[in-house]
């Protein structure tokens, strides 16, 4: 009976082994079918792991190969680029190498901790950042030929732990052109939560892609009341370009007289000059810059007034006063403007 029990136990163990082997074969077959139906995107016939290893290689030929491959990426390579721009995990072999070096570095640093000059650093550099950067640059270069980049970049902008810098994502979106039309609702949703410099870029994208859409125009007009002076000026420029409505943007421009840097106030004068002297408010707003704290801004205001053709008495008096400015180039611009007006 003992031998029968042992035989049954062996048979049971054999059955279990057969079942495990069948399960393993099925898993391998399922993995093969999945890989066949969802092949890994390649660049120049090579996977992301290869290009990551080349970036971490550090040799000049390897770096040159990477740059050449990404610089000549084609629209067919967009699936690879979209994967590369989101890469987070490293291939297992490279991760094991990094762990080994990290352990070696910790041991060496612990041994030479009293001598900072002998502290070691790892020879293996993490190439994921560089891989994402190269991929983003290629997507930006492909522009409208990579429409699938739109939703991906929106996802990266929404992700608080994004794999790329938000400015890079917005830069890719800015090159999509008409292909960015489907993501207009997403851009409108993201607009208030972006940093000022990115709000300006997104406003420009919206104006270029959907200038006739009422929700786009409403968003741009709403930005005339943004807390950031640069954003308000960008919105004013876009509103003028889209609608030629100087009455709408004049309050925003006048409000910028005491805000922002001198370069911004200079740009405000240029926009006022573009609007022209059709309304007395434009001339009056330009004349107020003759009292600006920056002499170059005062000189620019004098030149703009001279280009208006004719001035009201008070604005002309302000220009006359500028001929007594403490800076010679301001006096020269004011005198030249008055001479131009008198002809």
Mean pLDDT: 84
The helix tally amounts to 18
Share of helix among residues?
A: 55-70%
Beta fraction of the residues? under 5%
Q: Per the principal axes of the C-alpha atoms, what is the gross shape?
A: elongated
Class inferred from helices and paired strands: mainly alpha
Model regions low in confidence, pLDDT < 50 over at least 5 residues: 114-124
SSE string, helices as H and strands as E: HHHHHHHHHHHHHHHHHH
Distance between the termini: 127 Å
Radius of gyration: 32 Å
Give the total of beta strands: 0
What do these coordinates show?
The structure is a single chain. By secondary structure, the chain is an all-alpha fold. The protein is built from 18 helices and no strands. Helix 14 (262-275) packs parallel to helix 16.
């Amino acid at each position: 009976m003992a031998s029968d029990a042992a035989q049954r136990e062996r048979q049971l163990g054999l059955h279990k082994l057969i079942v495990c082997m069948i399960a393993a074969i099925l898993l391998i077959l399922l993995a093969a079918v999945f890989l066949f139906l969802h092949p890994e995107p390649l660049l120049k016939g090579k996977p992301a792991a290869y290009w990551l290893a080349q970036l971490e290689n550090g040799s000049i030929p390897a770096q040159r190969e990477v740059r050449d491959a990404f610089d000549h990426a084609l629209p067919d390579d967009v699936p690879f680029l979209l994967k590369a721009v989101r890469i987070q995990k490293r291939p297992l072999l490279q991760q094991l190498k990094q762990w080994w070096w990290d352990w070696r570095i910790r041991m060496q640093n612990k041994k030479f901790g009293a001598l900072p000059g002998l502290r070691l650093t790892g020879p293996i550099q993490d190439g994921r950042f560089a891989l994402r950067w190269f991929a983003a640059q290629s997507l930006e270069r492909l522009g409208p030929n990579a429409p699938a980049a739109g939703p991906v970049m929106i996802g990266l902008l929404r992700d608080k732990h994004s794999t790329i810098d938000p400015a890079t994502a917005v830069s890719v979106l800015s090159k999509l052109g008409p292909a960015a039309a489907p993501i207009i609702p997403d851009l409108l949703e993201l607009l208030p939560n972006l940093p000022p410099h990115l709000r300006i870029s997104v406003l420009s994208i919206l104006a270029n892609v959907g200038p006739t859409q009422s929700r786009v125009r409403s968003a741009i007009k709403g930005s005339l009341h943004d807390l950031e002076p640069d954003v308000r000026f960008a919105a004013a420029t876009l509103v003028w370009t889209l609608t030629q409505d100087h009455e709408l943007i004049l309050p925003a421009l006048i409000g910028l007289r005491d805000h922002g840097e001198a370069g911004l106030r200079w740009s405000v004068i240029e926009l006022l000059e573009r609007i022209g002297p059709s309304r007395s408010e434009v001339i009056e707003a330009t004349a107020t810059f003759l009292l600006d704290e920056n002499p170059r801004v005062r000189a620019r205001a004098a030149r703009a007034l001279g280009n208006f053709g004719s001035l009201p008495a008070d604005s002309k008096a302000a220009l006359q006063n500028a001929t007594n400015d403490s800076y010679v180039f301001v006096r020269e611009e004011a005198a030249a403007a008055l001479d131009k007006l008198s002809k």
